[in-house]
Amino acid sequence: VLAMTGKYDEAEAHLLAGNAEKTSEIGADHWRMAEYDKTLVDLYTKWGKPEKAAEWQAKLAALKPRPARET
């Protein structure tokens, strides 16, 4: 919501804090980090910060793949 209203600074602070918290729980390369990393890519893209978007896109690309479900 903050990013949609142009409050990018506030949105960034909240998203980075949430990302850090989740990273401490499951690790930075866990496949479940994709949602968090993608949100930051989207924020920086909308904010006009392509370098930051690329940084988070690289982190997103480096995540471990989601494990296959056992049958």
Main attributes of the structure:
3 helices; 71 residues
Number of helices: 3
What is the mean pLDDT? 92
Helix content: 55-70%
Largest sheet: none
Distance between the termini: 39 Å
What fraction of residues sit in β-strands? Answer: under 5%
The coarse silhouette is globular
Low-confidence stretches: none
**Topology as H/E string?**
HHH
Structural class: mainly alpha
State Rg.
13 Å
Strand tally is 0
Structure notes:
The chain is mainly α and 71 residues long. Helix content is 63%, strand content 0%. It contains three helices and no strands. The chain has helices at 8-26, 34-47, 50-61.
Give a short summary of the structure.
The chain is mainly α and 71 residues long. The protein is built from three helices and no strands. Helix 1 (8-26) runs antiparallel to helix 2 and helix 2 packs antiparallel against helix 3 (50-61).
Task: Spell out the blueprint of helices and strands.
Blueprint: H1 8-26, H2 34-47, H3 50-61
Helix pairs in contact: 1-2, 2-3
